[in-house]
Amino acid sequence: MHRLIFIFFIHFVFGMMNAQNTNLAPSKSVTEDYFGTKIVDDFRNLENLKDPLVINWMQSQTNYSDSVLNKIPNREYYINKRTEFDQRQSFSVNKINITENGFCFYLKKRADENTAKLYYRKGFEGIEKEIFNPENYNSKSHKKYLINYIKANYDGSKVAIALTESGREISEMVIYDLKSHKILPDLVTNCWPTNGGGISWLPDNNSFIYLQFPITDPNSDLFMKNMQAVIHKVGQNPKGLNVILSKKNNPNLKINAEDYPIVKLPTYESQYLFGYIAGATNFNDTYFQPVNLINKQNQWKLLFPKEEKINGFLVKNDDVIYISEKNGINAVYSTSLKTPDFKNPNLIIPSIPNEVINGLYQTKSGFVFSSSKNGVEAKLYIYQNNKIENLMLPFPSGDITVTSQNNHSDNFWINCAGWKNDDERFRFDIITKKFIPENLVPIVEYPEFKDIIVKEITVKSHDGVDIPLSLIYKKDLPKDKNNPLLMDAYGAYGINNSPFLDMTFMLWALKGGIVAIAHVRGGAEKGESWHLGGFKDTKPNSWKDLISCAEYMIQENYTSADKIAIWGQSAGGITVGRAMTESPDLFKVAILTAGIVNSLRIEAMPNGLNSVKEFGSKNIESEFKDLYEMDAYHHIKKNIKYPATFITTGINDPRVAPWMPIKFAAKLQADNASKNPILLKVDYKGGHGGRDLLLKQKYLNLSDVFAFALWQVGHPDYQPKEK
C-alpha cells in the first residue's frame, strides 16, 4: 500500500511538470447544506497549505507562471522605469512625526537603498541625523527587516520603532533613546501597530499603550483573537502584561474575541483616555476614563455607541467635537464631555452640499476640517471664532492629509497629492493665511507626464446612480477601440480610493493606454450612504458599477472588450471576481492580487470574524445568500469562456488567507472553456499585496501584472515571438 502511494506521488509530481492544462489541482470536494441550499466546494482540500500535494501544486503553478511571464518581451521596462524614477528622486521621506516641542522624526530612503532608515532633526531647519538602520537589526538571523511604523514621545527623547520581516506585517518594537543614543534593551513583541491603531505615549514620556496580539501565528485558530490594550513601561520587564482594556478584563463592555480594544491619549494634556472597540467597521462603541485611573479595572464609561455613527472626534476644553453620519447627514456637532448628550448636540458645521467632511484636526484657536467631493476633489476649512473659512490649497488636490502640532499652537501641515502630482508638504502660516512649502525631499519633475491628463466624470450605473470614474491618459490619445484600458476598482469597508501618484498608472498611460479608476459603491467616495450602497445585500452594486463603467468606455469608443483589463486587490477581489464571472465576455483580462474571491469561506480566515461585519455571516440565512452572491469562486461555471486571468497571493498574508486565491485559480483552470491563460503565482516572501516588501520584490511583482495585462490586450511591445 505504501509503495502504491509513493508511486502515485511520484507520478503526480512528474505530472506537474507538464503544461498547465494537464496540471489541474488535486480535488476533494465537500458538500455543505446552508438553510436547505446545498453548496459543493470542489477544492476544499486546497485550504490545507501543509498538505504535500497542495504545496507541490502551488510551487508548480508558480514555476509555470514564471516560465510564461519570462517569455514576455519588455518585461524589464516596468522595473527599469520605476528604478529610474527612484534614482531621479535622490531620496524619499515618509512617516513624519512632529513632537510637541518641534522634533521631527521620519523615515528616509536614498535612491540606491532598498530599505528606509530612521532620522531626526530639531525643527525643519535642523541638522539631520541618522539614528537607526534596520539592516543592522538582528543581523545574526540573516532576515531582512523593514521599519513599518514609528512614534516619538512628546518631548522627543524616545522613539518607538516597529520592525517587520518578509511582508508579515506583524511586528516587534524597539525603543531608541536620544539621550544615550542607543537602542534600549526593551523588546516589545506580538504587536502590529499599522493594524492596531498605532501606539499612544503617556505624559510621563516613558510609557506607551499598544495593542497586543496574544497569538501571531497566522495558521492558528486563535490568530487575531482576544487582542488587548496594554501598557509598556520603558526599562521595566514585568512578569505579566499590564492590561487596561480587553475582553477578559472588561466583561461588562461585551467585547467580542475578534474586536480590537484600542486605547488612545489624544494629547499630552488630555485628562481622559479613550477606548475604542474597533474592527472592520467605520463606527465604534467608544469609552473614556480619567488618566489618573489608568491602572484601575473597569473604570471605563460609555461616551457614545456605534449607533451614533461618529467617525472622528476631538476634545477641546470640555467639549467633544465630532463628525457624525447619523440619519444620513454628514455634519460636525459638539457636546459637553462632562455631561455628554449625543441625542441633542450643538450643530457646528452643517452638511456641505456635494462634499463629505472626513477629518478634524485641533489647533490652539479652533480646528481644521477637510472634505472631499466624489472622493477625488479635496477641500480644507478652518473654524475659528465661530466662523468657517475655506482655505485656498497650494494647488488643486485629489487628496490631502493634515497634521497638527498641539493644543498650544496653530501650526499644522498638509500633504497634497493627486493622480498626476507626487505628495508635497506645506505648513500653514496663520498670520498670512498662506501655505509655505516645507518639503523634506526635493520636488522631482516628471516631464514624461506633462502630456498626461486626468479627467473626472460620472457614469450611470445599472440603476441610474452616478458613479465617479477617474480617467488617466495622454491628451492626444484618439478615441479608438484599440486603446488598452486598465480598470481599477475596490469598493469595500467605506474606504475612499483616493488619488495619488501611482507610477503603474502613469506607465500604462505612457504606453498608450487608458487608466480608469471606478469609484464603485462600497467605498466612501460619497459618504456612509455610498458605503451602504455596496454592503452585504447591496454588494452586487460594487461589481455592477464596474460593469457599467466598462460598458460606458466601450460605448464612448474609448476601447473595446478585448482591450480591457480589470484589476482588484484584497476586498477589490469581490468586485473584480464577480464582474468577470457575471460578464466574462466584457473583459479580456482579470487581475486579482491577494483577492477575496471565496467569500462564503471568510469565517475560516484568521481575520474572518472581523470581515463578517462588512460582508456577513454564513450562519445567518439572509447573509449566507449575500455571501454566496458575492462569491466569485462559486460563480465559476463549467464550459464558460473566461478572460485571461492572473492570480497572486503572498504566503505570509495575514489579511486574506493564501488558500482563497489558490482555490479560485484551481477552479477557474478546471472549468474555463477558453484558451486564455489562467496563471497563479505564490509569492513565498510576500504578504498582503505589496505591504512591507523590499522595493525590488514589490517592483518585480508589479512588473508581472503590467506585462501580463499588456501581453493579453495585444500591445505590440509585449507579444512573445513564436519560434
Give a description of the structure.
Helix content is 18%, strand content 33%. The chain has 723 residues and is an alpha+beta fold. The chain has an 8-stranded mixed sheet with strand order 31-32-34-33-35-36-37-38, with helices on both faces. A hairpin with a 6-residue loop joins β4 and β5 (117-122). α3 packs across α11 (695-712). The longest helix has 18 residues, at 52-69. The chain starts with a helix and ends in an 11-residue tail after the last helix.
Assigned CATH superfamily of the largest domain: Alpha/Beta hydrolase fold, catalytic domain
Query: What is the terminal separation in angstroms?
Result: 45 Å
CATH architecture of the largest domain: 3-Layer(aba) Sandwich
CATH class value of the largest domain = Alpha Beta
The spatial strand order of the largest sheet comes to 31-32-34-33-35-36-37-38
Give the quaternary arrangement of the chains: single chain
InterPro entries: AB_hydrolase_fold, Pept_S9A_N, Peptidase_S9_cat, Peptidase_S9A, Prolyl_oligopep/macrocyclase
Keywords: Hydrolase, Protease, Serine protease, Signal
Organism: Chryseobacterium nematophagum
Domain Peptidase S9A N-terminal: 28-416
Which helices and strands, and how do they pair?
Blueprint: H1 2-15, E1 30-34, E2 37-41, H2 52-69, H3 76-88, E3 91-98, E4 103-110, E5 117-122, E6 129-132, E7 145-152, E8 158-165, E9 171-177, E10 182-191, E11 200-201, E12 207-212, E13 228-233, E14 242-246, E15 260-264, E16 272-278, E17 285-290, E18 301-304, E19 310-316, E20 319-324, E21 331-336, E22 346-349, E23 356-362, E24 366-373, E25 377-384, E26 387-391, E27 399-404, E28 412-417, E29 424-429, E30 434-437, E31 452-460, E32 466-474, E33 485-489, H4 503-510, E34 514-518, H5 528-532, H6 540-555, E35 564-569, H7 572-582, E36 589-593, H8 608-615, H9 621-629, E37 644-650, H10 659-671, E38 678-683, H11 695-712
Parallel strand pairs: 33-34, 33-35, 35-36, 36-37, 37-38
Antiparallel strand pairs: 1-2, 3-4, 4-5, 5-6, 7-8, 8-9, 9-10, 11-12, 12-13, 13-14, 15-16, 16-17, 17-18, 19-20, 20-21, 21-22, 23-24, 24-25, 25-26, 27-28, 28-29, 29-30, 31-32, 32-34
Helix pairs in contact: 3-11, 6-7
Catalytic activity: Hydrolysis of Pro-|-Xaa >> Ala-|-Xaa in oligopeptides
Signal peptide: 1-19
Keywords: Hydrolase, Protease, Serine protease, Signal
